[in-house]
Protein 1
Amino acid sequence: MLNRKGVPPAVRSRARYFLGKVWYQRGYLDQAAEMLEVAGEAGLTPEMEIERRMLPRRRCLYQGKYAEAIRTLENWHGPPTWQAYAQFNLGIALVRSGAPR
């Protein structure tokens, strides 16, 4: 099924995913998070989908939004490698927020 501009939804999702990653890598964190949010799951591999979900959480760390990072990382679910990565980032957020240990 094509959208009104003639681009299949899976192609549009992948393009938004890669654009979001590029913006993230260049430091445009808000734009990256917005693009990754609208990318959706259509056409993304499972690994891409997990990274799409993780990048906005990492943005919270870079922007000093530790409470938001803690809230979103505490309930993270994913493959073991990404679970460990989420726990590591959660630890960083807890330390930087000054949360009691």
Protein 2
Amino acid sequence: MNPPVTAVIALGSNLDDPEAHVRRGFADLAVLPGTWVTARSHLYRTAPVGYADQPAFVNACARVDTRLAPRALLEGLLDIERRHGRVRDIPNGPRTLDLDIVLYGGAVIDEPGLTVPHPRAHERAFVLAPLVDVWPEATIPGHGSARVLLQRTGSIGVQRL
């Protein structure tokens, strides 16, 4: 059996009671096989990025210990999204629940459909603020300390709920 790896999952929602989707998302992560939620961030209200004509988001992060391999973890996350009614019709568009692997230990993975660390996490305060909540000493491979990156990006448009 594989030893557990510490990973960080970003959660986001802006449709159909976003706070409830994110809170249920935390609970859904806790029942993934071989996975334990060890920390939950505060919830943050954030402005949309990219496609701007949509409601504000609620974002958060969960720190987990998991025995799932990265691809199996991703498949579990996609299954949770489907159960929350996630539809992917507009890139960066509105969604009931979005789950992304931000970090998987110190791994760097670049495969079709799976990139870890998340390719834009280091420049997005809506990921960095909750990441620092759950893992203050986190390092994003290739970019450095999450705390320092958050200080650089600032937290304009990110409001703690």
